[in-house]
Design a protein that fits this description.
Protein name: Sugar (Pentulose or hexulose) kinase
CATH superfamily of the largest domain: ATPase, nucleotide binding domain
Largest sheet: 7 strands, mixed
CATH class of the largest domain: Alpha Beta
CATH architecture of the largest domain: 2-Layer Sandwich
Shape: globular
Domain Carbohydrate kinase FGGY C-terminal: 276-473
Strand content: 15-25%
Radius of gyration: 23 Å
CATH topology of the largest domain: Nucleotidyltransferase, domain 5
Pfam families: FGGY_C, FGGY_N
Mean pLDDT: 94
Helix content: 25-40%
Structural class: alpha/beta
Domain Carbohydrate kinase FGGY N-terminal: 16-241
Number of strands: 22
Keywords: Kinase, Transferase
Number of domains: 3
């Protein structure tokens, strides 16, 4: 047992980060060296209910409590301490989406997640009005679509927030949001470091013209920056988080952040000319910009780092779900053959085969669209694999094709940044479960982006660890210390990453695959048009 860690836990010299991802809620406790000392998790899945992807409030609370309880049990087992003190806490979650509450704090409609591609009309109109790209995922698009739809709940709205903002509100009573998460709710004015006031006024005028008296500035959570305190854990919040009642109230909380922001922190990519790619159910790349873009692009979100620097974000709705489904099929086959295949080995073997494939994937084509894809304009999910009789159909090409397609929609947006806008990128840092298998994922991403890709030793820690780092930054920040300096000089000073440079043959192969991918989008659209879903069109 490490007595220094035990003492830090006893004295509250720790930071806790909890992140609500799309398939897992994870809690991470770190010490003063920023190393993980305990963790807990809860697996969950979104559900398609009445045409909307959602998570039930009961699952949100159960997941929060389960993840914390597992972490607390690990602390007890490893350090013989009942966790009652924590130095600082932070919550993060999937960005965007729509949680609307009335004046009594009751949720007016089920939580609508970022995954819903139901706000096309609203996103298009707001983009034209603001001359600023408003993606379908953004909270303001969900609100305006509800207005366009004349939904009954709209006049009763008193507060709108994201999932991270909701959890923070539950535990502190404070309607706060980190600027990174806020930038996925509504456009941020870089000079004001707050919601764009001119666009807020425009929105109010738009809604007034439709007969609504909503005042957007009164509905949105207050914007906070990394390093600021955004509330304290209340007595009620402490009992909600720790059902045993051991956790003490009064713990300071940092601003709640989105998973994009915690990904930037976890990969130390908040400086200009750096970027990161986060891989999971969806995939997004974040590039910290030196200059404004010359035009508005529907493929590129303009968001911010947790300390307010402008970021070009390319977000594709689909990434690993289809790969996971195929690996599950191979697992079934192995078990039918009497082989109990370890999950890690399955991924390692199958991903490894991709390195033996033809550079372009042998003429195979796949779309891993479990849900609609905003970048390519496909409105519904129809996972699709197709080949011609001349395609070289083998396991290596099959796996390479599915790894290629996981990043294909993302590449369309990234090409706008690098080829049209000439955005300079020194390096990209990658994180997510796909990179647990060494080399393979990095080589694919390096080929798709044509830039060096690094995976750091901390990459597997993920967003919950990044959120704990933000909580530690609030707790330990020196006067006027910048987040990028804190990360460089303290958190990552001894951390090394494995860098893989793009291979010319891989880059050319990916470009050939992309020609096939773009040309084949008509096939994917035909699947949407003609393949019925659960007996319905």
């Amino acid at each position: 047992m490490d007595q220094n860690i035990r003492q830090a836990i006893l004295e509250g010299g720790t930071s806790l980060g909890i992140e609500f991802g799309s398939t897992r809620i994870k809690a991470v406790l770190i010490d003063q060296k920023f190393e993980t000392v305990a963790s807990g998790s809860y697996e969950w899945e979104n559900q398609l209910v009445d045409g909307y992807w959602t998570y039930h409030l009961n699952d949100i609370i159960k997941g929060l409590q389960t993840a914390y309880s597992e972490l607390k049990q690990e602390v007890q087992q490893k350090y013989e301490v009942t966790l009652s003190k924590v130095g600082s806490i932070g919550f993060s979650a999937m960005m965007h989406g729509y949680m609307a509450f009335d004046s009594k704090g009751e949720l007016l409609v089920p939580f609508r997640t970022w995954r819903n591609a139901t706000t096309g009309a609203a996103a298009k109109e707001l983009t034209e009005q603001f001359q600023f790209n408003i993606p379908e995922r953004w909270s303001i698009a969900h609100l305006y679509q509800a207005i366009l739809n004349k939904e009954e709940h709209v006049p009763d709205i008193d507060f709108i927030t994201t999932l991270a903002g909701y959890i923070h509100w539950l535990l502190t009573g404070t309607k706060a949001i980190g600027i990174g998460d806020a930038s996925g709710i509504f456009p941020i004015d870089e000079a004001a470091q707050d919601y764009n006031p001119a666009m807020v006024k425009q929105f109010d005028e738009l809604t007034a013209a439709k007969g609504y008296s909503l005042k957007l500035g009164e509905l949105l959570p207050k914007v906070y920056h990394a390093g600021e305190q955004a509330g304290v854990l209340t007595e009620e919040g402490a009992k909600l988080l720790d059902v045993s009642g051991d956790l003490q109230a009064g713990i300071p909380l940092c601003p709640p952040e989105g998973d994009a922001g915690t990904g930037m922190v976890a990969t130390n990519s908040v400086r200009k000319r750096t970027g990161n790619i986060s891989v999971g159910t969806s995939v997004f790349a974040m590039i910290v910009l030196e200059n404004d873009l010359s035009a508005v692009y529907p493929e590129i979100d303009m968001v911010t780092t947790p300390d307010g620097s402008p970021v070009g974000m390319v977000h594709a709705n689909n990434c690993s779900s289809d790969i996971n489904a195929w690996v599950g099929l191979f697992r079934e086959f192995a078990e039918a053959m009497g082989i109990q295949a370890d999950s890690g080995k399955l991924f390692s073997v199958l991903f490894g085969k991709a390195l033996e494939a033809d550079a372009d994937g042998g003429g195979l084509l796949s779309y891993g669209y479990f849900s609609g894809e905003n970048i390519t304009g496909i409105e519904k999910g129809r996972p699709l694999f197709v080949r011609s009789p001349e395609s070289r159909f083998n396991l290596a090409n099959f796996m390479r094709t599915h790894l290629f397609t996981a990043f294909a929609a993302l590449k369309i947006g990234m090409d706008i940044l690098t080829k049209k806008e000439n955005v300079a990128i020194d390096s990209i840092l990658a994180h997510g479960g796909l990179f647990k298998t060494p080399v393979v994922g990095q080589k694919i991403v390096a080929a798709s982006m044509n830039v060096p890709v690094s995976v750091m030793a901390t990459a597997s820690e993920g967003g919950a660890w990044g959120m704990a780092i933000l909580a530690a930054f609030m707790q330990n920040r020196e006067q006027q210390e910048r987040l990028d300096d804190f990360l460089d000089n303290k958190v990552f000073k001894d951390t090394e990453g494995q860098v893989i440079h793009p291979d010319a043959a891989d880059v050319k192969g990916f470009e050939l695959f992309m020609e096939r991918y773009v040309e084949g989008l008509a096939i994917e659209q035909a699947a949407v048009d003609h393949l019925v879903e659960n007996g319905r069109g």
